[in-house]
Amino acid sequence: MTTVIQLVTRKLLDTIIGYVWWLEVEIKSRLSPNKQKSEKCFLLIADRLPPDTPTSGTYRPTSFLQYASENGWSATAISTPYDESSEAGTELLSHLHSEVTIYRPERLIWPWNKVFPSVSDLGGFGWALSLARKAINAKVVSPPTIVLASGPPFRNFIAGHYVARYFSASLVLDYRDEWTQAPHVFVPPSRKLDLYWEKRLLAEAKAVIFTTKSQIANQLTAFPELEEEKCHLIPNGWNTVGFGTKTKQCNQDEKRIKISFIGSLHHGPVSDFLTALSSVNRALPKKPFLRITGFISPRYAEIVEKHKELGLVETSGYIPQSEARKEMQASDILLILSHTPLERYLPGKLFEYIAAGTPILIFGAPGEVSNLVEKLNVGLRVAEDDIEGLGSAILDLAERKRSGSLISPEVKTWLDAHRRDKIAANLFNLFEDIRTSKES
Question: Does residue 285 surpass a pLDDT of 50?
Answer without folding.
Answer: yes
